Amino acid sequence: MTTDGSSNPDVVLVGGGIMSATLSALLGVVAPDWTVAVFESADQVAGESSDAWNNAGTGHSALCELNYTPAAPDGHVDTAKAVGINEQFQVSRQFWSHLVRSGLTDSPKRFITSVPHVSFVTGEAGRQYMRTRYDALATEPLFAEMEHTDDRDVLASWVPLMMAGRPAGEVAAATRSLAGTDVNFGALTRLLLDTAVSRGVELHTSTRVRKVRRESDGRWAVTVRSGSGRSRTVRTRFLFVGAGGGALPLLQGSGIPEIRGFGGFPVSGQFLRTRSPELVGQHQAKVYGQAKVGAPPMSVPHLDLRLIDGEQALLFGPYAGFSPKFLKAGSMWDLPKSVRSGNLGSMLGAGIANIPLTKYLVGQVLQSTSARFRALEEFVPTAEQDDWELITAGQRVQVIKQDPTTGRGVLQFGTELIVGAEGSIAGLLGASPGASTATSAMLTLLERCFPERMDTWRPLLQEAIPSYGHKLSQDPALMAEVRADTTKTLELQG
Length: 494
What we know:
Layout lengths: L10 E4 L3 H13 L5 E4 L40 H22 L10 E3 L2 E6 L1 H14 L9 E3 L2 H7 L1 H4 L8 E6 L3 E3 L1 H14 L3 E3 L2 E8 L5 E7 L4 E6 L1 E4 L5 H8 L8 E12 L2 H5 L4 E3 L13 E7 L2 E11 L12 H5 L5 H10 L1 H11 L3 H11 L9 E14 L6 E4 L2 E6 L4 E6 L7 H12 L4 H11 L11 H14 L5
Parallel strand pairs: 1-2, 1-12, 2-8, 4-14, 12-20
Antiparallel strand pairs: 3-7, 4-6, 5-6, 9-10, 10-11, 13-16, 13-17, 14-15, 15-16, 17-18, 19-20
Helix pairs in contact: 1-6, 1-13, 2-15
């Protein structure tokens, strides 16, 4: 698959975030001779959800996120989602390790650092859940090194900032994994795209994709407009729309039937942040708690250590907000324009089914400063308001889709890969776990869009990602080998 460069690249990637950057890197492994063009509407890449301050940067590996290990009414804890997400994060680690060995950066700490991941609960019911969850995860090889305690002295050594000032009789329990990380996805995206440009990928910033249309020969005509207002059309055999919240309207405009029934519900996030060296020094971990009863998964409270461009800070949240924009730099008309005849039923159905979510969001928007601070005090009893500032993080667009069994619209909190037109176009919708599983998402894209090439590509991918085609959770020996290699290459803790 070769064309004549900038006007007719083999591949066009829409959006300069972690997804396009990851796909570009994978194509550099399996198809280095293909011509690739990336179009980003902002004046720099990684400015939306991939930006370090616009995401929690957890390196979502399900080591601490309790919403990935739900408890059934009988108390049984389901670990399937946690294991699956951890598997996907290990794939990302392996690919990043391969790229580092190939010269991505001389210092992996520019984008990934070891940070303990802790789950923390209070109350007797919370303690029982935490014990059951730990027992269930302890049988899984990917979680074998996890620790558990309900001893207050041990807890004080793990999370001193959270235990200071806590009532003496309060029951608390936690698990901790030293395999956790903090990932600066903004820095990683820039490294990936810088490397891509060095091998010939064309990167166009301040260039917005206005329209995509399939031509009679099967190629995609992509109309773009630069910041100066000049429009032009490039033609490509394969188009990936990885523009975050901006992906939905472009896919709708493409005319592919696979997007019919899909909608999006935008949610903005806010966090309380402190840069106080004293407070940061007392909280060298990422700690996730439990969502309030009836609250959506997006509301799980967490107090995260962030390491961004040499600076350490703590983020607490999230506090949900609402804006009809699909991107932070989007339009107030994004949501209304996304409602069409093909997804109106899904949107209405999801709205009716998620009235509690609507009430939650209204409550969050109307929440007072003191109410926000009380939520922080549940995590940090000694918190003082002057030490914290409220910041607005990224804009997320949750996926609305039709349930294939009922035909009703449902709101989901994961990601969705849309593939159409015989695999010549693909797009990614949704949010969490998002960036942490970008490599797995883009591998799935390659498999679905280029099945006829996988026999040739598979050995190349297995060289870059040793576990490709295997499950580490079912192969402890391979898991130990992979973990040791990525830990050493990425300069993480052993």
